[in-house]
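From the pipeline queue, job 12 of 40. The input is one protein chain; the requested action is below.

Action: predict structure.
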Amino acid sequence: MDFPRLLSVEPRPHHRIFLRYADGVEGMVDMAARTNFKGVFERIRDESYFNRVHRTPERHIAWDDELDICANAQYLNLIGKTYEEWDAGHTLPLPIAPLE
């Protein structure tokens, strides 16, 4: 089962992003808390750079060609589930073989 499509990404004050998904899930992600501005994420400390966040045509969350984050991981964060918990609720039923 595929994750719901990311519909939009909006920068918000204090290094937060607001995300909307096709299944109606939406919410705020605090990027300062999630990244601690460590490593490649040092760049998003700059508000003008941070405000470049957008949804790519491939539906990723990105600031430029070199810095992006996983939309699926952020979805799981918003719904408060691990991948295994989410996947268990989204398994497809097996087809039933006809009786002979």
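Job complete. The mean pLDDT is 89.
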